[in-house]
Structures are given as structure tokens and as C-alpha cells.
Amino acid sequence: MSSRIASKPSAIPVPQAASTTSMIPALLLCISGAAALIYQVLWIKQLSLVVGVEAYAITTGISAFFAGLALGGWLFGRWADRLQQPVLLYAGLEVLVAILGVGATVAMSLAAGAFAWLQGHVGVLAWLLPFALVGIPAVLMGGTLPVLVRSLAAEPGKAGGQLYAANTLGAIVGTLLAAFVLIASLGVRGSALFAAMLNLLAAAGALWLQRQQPVALAAPVKHGNAKAPDRTALWLYAVAGGVALGYEVVWSQS
Questions:
Q1: How far apart are CA 138 and CA 64, in angstroms?
Q2: Contact 39, 195 (CB under 8 A)
Q3: Per residue in 50-71, is it b (16+ CB within 10 Å) or e — as a string?
Q4: How confident is the model at residue 17 (pLDDT cuts 50, 70, 90)?
Q5: CB 156 within 8 A of CB 89
Q6: pTM score, two decimals?
Q7: What is the mean pLDDT of residues 134-148?
Q8: How many CA atoms lie within 13 A of 16 on its CB side?
Q9: Using CA atoms, how far apart are residues 123 and 116, in angstroms rounded to an integer?
Q10: What percent of the chain has pLDDT over 70?
């Protein structure tokens, strides 16, 4: 009996490296989300000085930020579907966000005079300046989530939910850090540099992840025509998002 027990095969250990690697994308988007919301808090604070009215600053900052996220998600999501190694695109986006995020912060600190001059000469078109300063880097930020979801296309629904949750958690942390810690200790530009370091950290993590998974996880996806129920769901989701952001603006003025 003892010889039979001794010859019985042992349980196969679960590889820890695979489970650790699968957690990396969520960690990357948590870091990325924190950086994005640090920028947003900084830009809204700066816009109050540029446009002179806090309500307009909040409205412009939020609308430009989310318009950029939406456009970036659409553009880079479609691009990522045609790539064999979308993680590399994600790393590039994070590096560009770091550069443009700091650049927009510096430009915003110098934009008050330019905005006043434009408002005197072109009227309402002057608002394109602060909208662009916020919206352009936000376009790149918007591409990060769909690109990483594409890199885990084996389980798109599950991966998308996990990555979105991690990104939202990072956004919460970034907002609290910017408001209660970073601006008071590092100032606006120092806080932007801190956010840029987070972007570069996320880019470095993505490159490490690519080295662990050198082969694409799935073949490029072919887009089909959206069905009517799918479009209805998109419109309903858009309306819900608009209502939620409307509440955010109203509550900020309460």
C-alpha cells in the first residue's frame, strides 16, 4: 500500500507567473487612470484663471476632457483591432500623454493673455483654445483602455470589465491625490510632472508585459455592421453619460 501511495503523481502546481502577468494590464490602467485625473484636476484649476469664471472653467474642462476620451477611444480602438501587438501602441500612447500632459499644463499657465486677446477679436471662437489644450492630450488618454482590452481579446467582456474597474479606481485615487496632496506639496507644474512619471511607469510596465508575451494574443478583429439593437444601446449609454456629467457640473456649483 505504501508503494502505491508513493508512486501516486503529485498535484500539478499552478504557475504564479501567468497569474501575475494577467494582473499587470489592470495595474497599468489603474496607474494610467490616476495620471489622467491628476491632469484633469490641474487643468480645471488652471482654466479658472484662464477664463475667469469657475463654472465655465469646469464645464469647458469636463466637456473637452470627455470629448477627447471618446474620440481617442473610437480612433485608437479601431486602430488596435488591426495590430498584432497592441501593447506597444499602449506604451507609445502613455509616453505621448506624459509629454502632452506636461506641455498642456505649462501652456495653460500662459494662456490667459492669449485667451483674452482671442476673445476680443474672434469672440466665442476663443473657447477653442482651452478646449484644445485639454482635449488633445485627452484623445491619447482615451485610447489606452480599448488598446489594452484588445491585447486581452481572448475574453473581451471579462477583461474589459476588469480593466474599466481598475481604470476607474485609479481615477479616484488620482483625483484625491491631486486635490489633497500633490498641489499643496508640489504645485501645479510639479503635480503634472508627477503624473507624467506615472505615465512613463505605465509605459515601462507595458513594455515589460510585451517581453513576457511576445506573440499577439489574438488575430486582428474584422468590424461588422452594427445592428440596430447595438446602436440603441450605444445611444442610451451616451445619454446616461451626458446626464451623469451634467450632475457633476451642477453639484460642483451647489
A1: 8
A2: yes
A3: bbeeeeebbbbbbebbbbbbeb
A4: very low
A5: no
A6: 0.82
A7: 94
A8: 0
A9: 10
A10: 72
pLDDT in tens, 90-100: 999 999 999 99
Tell me the HSE value of 205 on the side-chain side, using a 13 A CA sphere: 21
CA distance 216 to 108: 40
- At 125, list the grid cell: 471662437
Helix (H), strand (E), coil (C) string for the chain: CHHHHHHCCCCCCCCHHHHHHHHHHHHHHHHHHHHHHHHHHHHHHHHHHHHCCHHHHHHHHHHHHHHHHHHHHHHHHHHHCCCCCHHHHHHHHHHHHHHHHHHHHHHHHCHHHHHHHHHHHHHHHHHHHHHHHHHHHHHHHHHHHHHHHHHCCCCHHHHHHHHHHHHHHHHHHHHHHHHHHHHHHHHHHHHHHHHHHHHHHHHHHHHHHHHHCCCCCCCCCCCCCCCHHHHHHHHHHHHHHHHHHHHHHHHHCC
Q: Measured between alpha carbons, how far is residue 91 from residues 39, 53, 96, 208 in Å?
A: 18, 37, 9, 10
* pLDDT over threshold 70, residue 153: no
> Which position has the grid cell 488598446?
147
With 80 as the cut, is the pLDDT of residue 176 above it?
yes
Cell of 170: 485609479
CA atoms within 13 A on the CB side of 207: 11
Checking if the pLDDT of 22 tops 80, the result is no
Q: What is the mean pLDDT of residues 127-143?
A: 96
Q: Residue 250: what pLDDT?
A: 58
List the domains of the chain with CATH numbers.
Answer: 25-220 (1.20.1250)
- Grid coordinates representing 109 are 499657465
